[in-house]
Amino acid sequence: MKKGEIVGIAGVAGNGQRELTEAIYGLRKVSSGRILLGNTDVTHMPIRRRLEIGISYIPQERVRYGVIRSFSILENILLDRFEEDMFSIKRVPLLKLLDYNSISKYTEELVRRYEIVTPHIREKAGALSGGNIQRLILARELERLPKILIAEEPTAGLDIKATEYVRQKLLDLKASGVGILLISSDLTEIFQLSDVIAVMYGGEIVGVFKPEEISYEDIGLYMTGVSKMPRDEVLRRWELY
Amino acid sequence: MSSWVLAIAPYASIPASFILMALMLYMTGYDPIRGFSGFFQGAFLNPMGIATSLARSTAFLFMAVGIGLAINARVLNIGGEGQYIIGAIVATAIALATQNTMPEYLSLLLSLMTALIAGAMWAIIPGILKAYMGVNEIITSVMMNILAFRLLQWLLRGPLKNPLSEAWPMSPPLKPMLIELVPGSTLNVGFIIALIIAVFTYILLYKTVEGYKVRATGLNPDAATYGGIDVKKVMVYVSMYSGALCGLAGAVDILGVFHFLYEGISIGLGYTSVVVALVGKANPLLIIPASIMFGAIYNGFTHLQSAIGVSYTLSKGIEGLIYLVILLITVFVEYRVKVIVK
Fold it and tell me: Which uninterrupted H or E stretch holds B290?
């Protein structure tokens, strides 16, 4: 994966995409192989460290992983960012007091910029609609200024307006130089956004393509395991693209 | 339902529990009116009664604040009983060892600190077993409670035995004493310490990054993990914090109220504290009035017992029933009960 590039992983759900993203983010233990970010080996790093070096993750199961429903919008903005200096007052030793003034201001700004529809930032995240929860997660993850973003089914279950919004945000992020790993079972989305498409089947990458060199029909054959690229061809193209 | 209704509910349930209490006393052939008079005289209606009630609530406050913090991380510390006993044992041992060689304040400080650490250590075992091996903390805590009580029994017949007391297993009297707040009563500076710790715990829980981690862990461990929180570590830490406060409760009672160690120092205080924590919605500030209420009830029953000569067992039984009523009303006010006729 390169800077400012979207790598789309196409595949029928359940062919190892979830395992791949969880391994990259650190929710799952890796038994073999290595994960590198630049020259840093992150394979066995705790999630906290991965966040610090700039990995962001938009999970598919947004209610299970992405937000805490009984926390307010404000508190959810802190979810993977509570360690950031802008949110705490460093006055007492050992304890990090949360700076609710600065957090409120920041949250209000994000709610405005990401057009999250809510009566108040103290509203519980569980009271938001699916689209607004996704905007909240997006706001939190993009504003962290990550180096790479893993977006797993980022538009699943969203209405057309929210879907377009999320896709545009991903393209903006790409333009700003962030590498994005997009996992989606929506082929339109993969073709619309990706610079490189990799197809997963049975836990393996079975094909690597540029979007312009393959059709929907042909990619379908790879997704269902009918066609398969030899392993060295996959690696060759992976290097090439 | 608005939050103040939920906060008030346990106190509103007191009249209901008193009706029940009157019924129980009447049925067992005692005079409820005289009983109540004794109860109120002892618990509220004179300065000494109030002081004693507050003194009784001190241990509840320490323990319920600790247990409440752990509940926020979804760890139920039912081992307060054992941690209290261990705290009391350690405080006694350290006080006995240092009372003749050290200035009083140093001896007190050392006893309190070691009891605090001992309580944390006693609680770390179920904490680690739960966090890293998935062992149910309730089972291990109860085992640790039994272990603590047996240890107490043995020590009182062995190393900590008072040579002058033949019949009763008890420790020699302790000289270091916590400062009394009301002269002649058992109310001591421990109550103030408990209040400070309650406020501190509230700030810790709601205003700091550490507290944020605790609450996130309790509300959604998956999302907390996603957010880079080591939920296992959080579980171990809250167990220790909880245990430390329970240990401190034991030490404060020994050094401020009893002044010697005996077998009956804690009869279910740790378990009652779980109820106190639940009535206080696991919120350290709401736990303060809850502890005072339970302290007053506990104290009131001692007086009720002596006023009408009820047996200790019956008195404790009714007391337990009161706790049950308060807890049930506190819990059920959050739900809507619907009767469906088929």
Answer: helix B284-308
